[in-house]
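Work through this:
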Amino acid sequence: MDSDLSDTIIGLKQSLKAVKSGSAAKAFVAEDADFHVREPFISVCREYGVPVEYCKTCKELGSACKIDVGAAVAVLKKDDMSFSNIINNEEVKD
């Protein structure tokens, strides 16, 4: 993982933990993630006041997180807003 991504949390369990503990600045959700994963996570983010940004696909989010597999959700810790720029500029290569 790049140093720019050191404060990025990938995956549902750890992302939920970060949101509930108040350490998440922003959440990222793949639009094609399973409904039973995506919707409850979005609800928790709303409940805790964490803004949610959407990515088109799990593949796109995984690529932005610099992992070789798709990711349904990820969060950015409060002390690393640079990840938002990576997500917004990421191009997925097939």
About this structure: Residues 29 and 64 are 12 Å apart (CA to CA). The helical segments are 12-21, 35-47, 58-64, 82-89.
